[in-house]
Design goal:
Layout: H1 15-21, E1 26-30, E2 35-37, E3 45-59, E4 65-67, E5 91-104, H2 105-110, H3 115-142, H4 145-160, E6 161-163, E7 169-171, H5 177-184, H6 188-200, E8 204-207, E9 210-213, H7 216-222
Antiparallel strand pairs: 1-5, 2-5, 3-4, 3-5, 6-7, 7-9, 8-9
Helix pairs in contact: 4-5, 4-7, 5-6
């Protein structure tokens, strides 16, 4: 199944509340390819990425793996604090050297916070997550292969894109066709063919491992449901 960029859970919280929550957070460092946690581990708190890049992977019982678009640098967090300490639903590892801050479940419970305010923002978060999930299901059910690849590229551009003029969007992270295939939920061979076609047709370019959307509007039309 294709996946989309998840909501940054702290974007719906006031900055003052986030600052209090992370005031005494612990620092964790990861080397490139080092695993932060794996699916099934206890969900004992929340990590925020300060520097670096992470990816989220889910492995089916058959052994097939899908990587989400959650390759985030900067102040983002993949999972909300687990109030009931449920197991992690996916595995997270570092794409490159990364630094994170961690707030434990116990620290969150002990932190002073205006409860009505917190739950109001949590409802906003859950609504955004539901919209994300609806988009993922719709893309996997209704989009053709090209549409799913276009959606993956647009998600990456939303997270890491830089406008370099004339409507061109540079994705400022190196991604491989295999990465795009995992995000789109289709075979790498199909993705490579589609990407090569788009490079030939000047919808897309690639230099030193960096993709650039040369015609974002056409890719958006490809991904429209």
């Amino acid at each position: 199944m294709p996946v989309t960029m998840p909501t940054n859970i702290f974007s719906v919280f006031p900055e003052s509340l986030v600052a209090k929550l992370f005031a005494n957070a612990k620092t964790t460092t990861l080397a490139s390819d080092e695993v932060l946690f794996i699916a099934g581990d206890p969900g004992d708190g929340c990590y925020r990425v300060e520097q670096g890049l992470l990816k989220v992977s889910m492995i089916a019982p058959t052994g097939a793996r899908t990587d989400s678009g959650d390759r985030r640098s900067g102040r983002h967090c993949r999972r909300a604090l687990h109030h009931r300490r449920l197991p992690r639903s996916a595995s997270v590892s570092a794409v490159r050297d990364s630094e994170l801050t961690f707030v434990s479940h116990a620290a969150f419970q002990a932190s002073p916070r205006p409860t009505p305010q917190v739950y109001k923002h949590l409802v906003t978060l859950l609504a955004a997550r539901l919209r994300d999930t609806d988009g993922v299901v719709a893309a996997g059910s209704f989009l053709p292969l090209k549409g799913r690849v276009a959606r993956a590229l647009l998600d990456l551009a939303e997270a890491f894109g830089q406008d370099v003029g004339q409507g061109r969007i540079l994705i400022r992270q190196k991604v491989s066709p295999s990465d795009v295939a995992a995000m789109a939920g289709i075979a790498r061979e199909n993705v490579s063919r589609i990407l090569n076609d788009w490079i030939r047709d000047k919808l897309l370019s690639r230099l030193s491992g960096y993709y650039c959307l040369e015609n974002k509007k056409k890719l958006q039309r490809e991904s429209a449901i």
